[in-house]
Write a structure and sequence with these properties.
With about 400 residues, the chain is of the alpha/beta class. The chain has twelve helices and 16 strands.
């Protein structure tokens, strides 16, 4: 016989498999759950029945009966009111929030242009908590639960375990411990993550790529990477992100916003491309945030004729290529999904990127990896942060089910 702890682990594993399948399928049936998870039909039925009684899932009749015979199957889905989650995005001069139900449907969205540069930890906690409460006040659904899980997506370096913003270009202060105080203020579980590190979570359930391992590469206000290895999004301990943009490209080279010199970002970030295209000194740091339209205009200039604009995108591609080549000497080459304002100029950078990979990797390994583009980076970050929050709720329900789930096998 299994020990009690072993039996509980098996039940948690089975519940997790059922919930994960339903996330990927949106709606399903008990027979589909059995086929997808490898559970017997009776076990799948027992688990889903318990989750229904505990208010996690709902079941409805299959309306499409025109070509079917026999007893109608019941369709399974998530109970929207089982939980409420929030995704907060913090960037230079702005905060935005999306509140969603347990089925992943948005309930409210707010965007605020605001000066957050001078906020300390307490000021940041107050601003975020006020934004969450304001968004919750916009929800029209009656008796909607308060936010239970919140994911904070931040530009910059974060410490996941401590809930700390180590450094961000959006803020003057460093080492802002905001997670524990925000959790207390909202009575919610809070995760503080680098925005780029979250990006692979955006395709956790929607199947945005068929590859098991891949990377998102953001080119915009900075250069960041979200990495998925072994089917898991890389987010570890005190470093929630792959600091790709701050790999050194040219020792003692152009100035980077992080305070160092010669980083990949110092050649491939939007401010670096703008700086090079306009012939500014490599020591110049641009404080303001460049608009997407400014980068798009530079790209159009580069497409029209050779010159500084085209050279700027080629230098950006070379820096990215050398960074990827170095990465591919540590891990196997993997598909790259580009996003951000700079990704719209991938046609200008791709030849230089591939050349840079070939020149900096062993035997040109990885120079032929697949490239693709995710157009809407804001939508990607919100989807990723929401999925991350929902996954936290799912894990809690798998490990600590309601009173009806103990009978499920």
């Amino acid at each position: 016989m299994l020990a009690k702890t072993d039996a509980e682990s098996v039940r948690a594993h089975n519940r997790r498999a059922v919930i994960d399948h339903l996330r990927r399928s949106s709606v399903s049936t008990r027979r589909d759950v059995s086929a997808a998870t490898g559970l017997s039909v009776s076990s799948a039925s027992a688990i889903t029945a318990a989750l229904i009684r505990d208010g996690v899932l709902i079941e409805s009749s299959d309306d499409d009966r025109s070509l079917k015979r026999g007893r109608p199957e019941r369709r399974l889905g998530f109970e929207p009111g089982a939980a409420t989650v929030a995704a907060v995005k913090i960037a230079v001069g702005e905060m935005a929030i999306r509140v969603s139900d347990y089925a992943g449907e948005p309930l409210a969205h707010l965007h605020r242009v605001m000066n957050i540069a001078d906020l300390d930890a307490d000021g940041m906690v107050t601003a975020i908590a006020d934004l969450v409460r304001e968004a919750e006040g916009l929800i029209e659904r009656p008796q909607c639960a308060a936010t239970e899980q919140l994911t904070l997506a931040v530009q910059g370096k974060t410490d996941v375990e401590a809930g700390r913003i180590v450094w961000s270009p959006a803020m003057k202060h460093r080492d802002l411990v905001v997670g524990p105080k925000l959790a207390q203020a909202l009575d919610a579980t809070v995760s503080v993550c680098n925005d780029c590190s979250l990006m692979p979570e955006g395709v956790r359930w929607r199947g945005g790529t068929s590859a098991r391992d891949f990377a998102f590469l953001f080119i915009g206000f900075g250069v960041g990477m979200g990495l998925r290895i072994g089917g898991r999004t890389f987010q570890e301990g005190t470093n929630s992100a792959v600091e790709f943009g701050h790999i050194n490209h040219v020792p003692g080279g152009a100035a980077c916003r992080c305070g160092n010199s010669g980083c990949v970002e110092a050649y491939a970030g939007d401010y670096a491309i703008w700086r090079r295209a306009l012939g500014r000194p490599p020591s110049d740091i641009i404080d303001r945030r460049l608009t997407d339209s400014e980068i798009h205009r530079l790209a159009e200039d580069a497409r029209q004729a050779p010159g500084d604009a085209r050279a700027a995108f080629e230098e950006a591609g070379k820096a990215i290529g050398y960074g990827l080549g170095r990465l591919f000497t540590i891990i196997d080459p993997l598909p790259i999904i580009f996003t951000g304002a700079g990704a719209h100029a991938i046609d200008l950078m791709e030849p230089a990127i591939r050349k840079g990979i070939a020149e900096s990797s062993i035997a040109e390994q990885g120079a032929d990896v697949a490239f693709s583009v995710e157009e809407d980076v804001d939508a990607l970050v919100f989807e990723a942060a929401t999925n991350h929050a929902l996954a936290g709720i799912d894990e809690r329900l798998a490990r600590n089910p309601g009173r009806h789930s103990e009978a499920a096998e």
